[in-house]
Amino acid sequence: MSDNAKPRKKLAIVSCMDTRLVNFLSERLGIGPGDAKVIKNAGNIITDDTLRSLVVAIYLLDVNKIMIVGHTDCGMKSVDIEDIKNKMIERGANPYFTPNLEQWIGKIDSEEDNVIKGTDLIKNHPAIPKDIEVKGYILDIVTGNLKQLC
Ligand SMILES: [Zn+2]
Fold this sequence. Notes:
Blueprint (H helix, E strand, L loop, with lengths): L10 E6 L7 H6 L6 E6 L6 H14 L3 E7 L3 H4 L2 H10 L10 H5 L5 H13 L9 E7 L6 E3 L2
Parallel strand pairs: 1-2, 1-3, 3-4
Antiparallel strand pairs: 4-5
The structure holds zinc ion.
The site of zinc ion has 7 residues, from helix 3.
């Protein structure tokens, strides 16, 4: 991979796809273009696909620091699995698709616990080298305050 693909701050950030988090990287963390690899999904959950992107970032793009940034008032805490399931079926999705929809969609119980769990998962994952710095944060969506959790 070209050196241009490598993030200047050797940093990867995993955060939520929440629409309110569009500018927080530049506004709250001073992250500009070229600085960091950013992986977003609903609820900043560490899935196999998140880990795949982190492995590419670490081994090919020289990333040595990972930040997981969750946020207060995350929609994945209040997501209604039955509602999603009903809407999927209404719109023609196969009702037998992904029987464990709760796990697949990734409903979370607590934004903070979700960040701590994700941080532990990365730290203890067999594909992640032990010298990688992994830290978890929660962003208060109202005040903009970023608090380190672990
Ligand atoms: Zn969220």
